[in-house]
Amino acid sequence: MFTGIIEEVGTLKGIRHGQKSSVVTIGGKKVLIATKIGDSISTNGVCLTVTKLHKDAFDADVMPETLQRSNLGGLQMGGRVNLERALQLDTRLGGHIVSGHIDGTGAIKEYRKDDNAVWITISAGPELLRYIIEKGSIAIDGVSLTVATVDSGSFQVSIIPHTGAETILLEKKLGDTVNLECDIIGKYVEKLLGLSPKTQTKQSNLSEAFLQENGFF
């Protein structure tokens, strides 16, 4: 698990493509401190397992599923990535609970300066927007952010100068792909209530009486 508070920006130092999967070598410094083989490091929000350690880098296997669901497959040599080690339970949770399992991708639609902050508009499909709510949490390339507004095709976040300086979010160009991980609680609630898009019918069982019976009031 992660918090979405980026520790440093690393770079892609190597990539070896297999038939469908890849092995990446990611350069970093801070995230390598006390890191062992088998540890997890969030890379642009994707939970990767360290398979080999170098002096200033680590190797990780990237499965076909990960390449299909994230922007890691489009990384070029020297490309910059957000890095965060797995959280420790004896530290403050500065962001929100992030699993490192990407739900899908969005695209940078607009940047807008607002005094010392920058508004970012990101387009996303309905299968993701159903879990994105105003004032809720979202992880964008592994960065924990608060959703400011949501409409039928996109959502907005606002980032402070520190976040802009310590991550790669403001390095993205319009149209660039970003990894998105929605808040995990909403997905569990949906599944437990039988409201998954795959099972949901026109007549929902969700009602005020149902919620009262199950302790929501």
UniProtKB/TrEMBL annotation:
UniProt xrefs under InterPro entries: ATP_synth_asu-like_sf, Lumazine-bd, Lumazine-bd_dom, Riboflavin_synthase-like_b-brl
Gene3D superfamilies membership: 2.40.30.20
A GO molecular-function descriptor: riboflavin synthase activity
Domain Lumazine-binding as annotated: residue spans: 1-96, 97-193
A GO biological-process term: riboflavin biosynthetic process
Superkingdom per UniProt: Bacteria
UniProt keywords, alphabetically: Repeat, Riboflavin biosynthesis, Transferase
EC identifiers of the protein: 2.5.1.9
Pathway assigned in UniProt: Cofactor biosynthesis; riboflavin biosynthesis; riboflavin from 2-hydroxy-3-oxobutyl phosphate and 5-amino-6-(D-ribitylamino)uracil: step 2/2
A Pfam entry, by short name: Lum_binding
Catalytic activity, reaction form: 2 6,7-dimethyl-8-(1-D-ribityl)lumazine + H(+) = 5-amino-6-(D-ribitylamino)uracil + riboflavin
Lumazine-binding repeats: 1-96, 97-193
Function, in words: Catalyzes the dismutation of two molecules of 6,7-dimethyl-8-ribityllumazine, resulting in the formation of riboflavin and 5-amino-6-(D-ribitylamino)uracil.
Subunit field text: Homotrimer.
Protein name: Riboflavin synthase
Organism: Trichococcus flocculiformis
